[in-house]
Amino acid sequence: MTKIRAILLIVFGLAVGAVITLTVERAPDTGPMPPALAQTPSPSADFDAEELRTISIFEKAQASVVFISMTQRRRDMFQMGVDVPSGTGSGFVWDDEGHVVTNAHVIRGASGATVRLPGGQDVPAQLVGVAPEHDLAVLRVPGLEMRPLPRATSAGLLVGQRAIAIGNPFGLDFTLTTGVVSALDRTLPGEQGRPIRGLIQTDAAINPGNSGGPLLNSSGQVIGVNTAIYSPSGASAGIGFAVPMDTVARVVPQLITTGRYAPPVLGIELDPRIDAMMQQAGFPPGVMVLGTQPGGPAALVGLRPARLGAEGIIPGDLIMALDDARIGGLDDLSAALDARRVGDTVVLTILRDGDEVEVSL
Fold this sequence. Notes:
- The protein is mainly beta.
- It is 14% helix and 36% strand.
- The radius of gyration is 23 Å and the shape is elongated.
């Protein structure tokens, strides 16, 4: 029996870990592309309401979606640097200051990036910041005169609602595909050993080159950033994933301001190996507090860390829940904190001396 091996295809592109300036000439691998043409429906065309809505969304959104080409610096035997094409992807305009949102994996390992505008012009881009843990990156094109796409919250998404993807699959610019939100809160393996959580699943066709492009709702608002496909063949098989807009809205402003993403912290010291040992010893799932940072939130409310006693390790507070989210390990705690903002108040449910206690901090 033939076995079909399913692979998770993280679509074209390579990422960079530091803020650098990326400048290259026109990418030679895709060839010139014609300028985007405005669609003029024939007066005799018989469009239904849904078709007219989709056409309108595409007409408005395509002017804010860009094609991204990457290059990588190669050295020959004489140590002369040569820029060669290394991948393509998509992106969309975030604000009036020329910032473009895309995926971190799109620019991974690249030495240069070029943004192709809807009119066909190629312009060099600068890398502003990257957050591999959420597969997000921000480029900037100085003097970019393109309007940002409107954005919607992803908190109220429902399975079955319409989803529209715009991007550049296989280098074919300004391609639209439609479908529905087919599932929510999906988790995929990510970089740095941390899973990417809370992803939107859609059956709108997403192919290599769509990465970094917007996923829109039926009002033309961005609800996510297309990031990956799950495919037995390497092409779209009806299962695509997007980073939800609420995550993007937390991460991108920090990338623009500081070049990196720093989620909120509790000010505690942790070790997943200790958590595994505690569960083997009969403790319930959770995260053991091993230490607190002076002046941090945990120290200010008196969380108790584990300590050494005459008979060995004396357990400290075991974090079992953060607000309504059960905490089974460090990944759960990181995900729960990542959904909060600095300055928020949270309630921890902890196990202390055999009793469950709630602590607000």
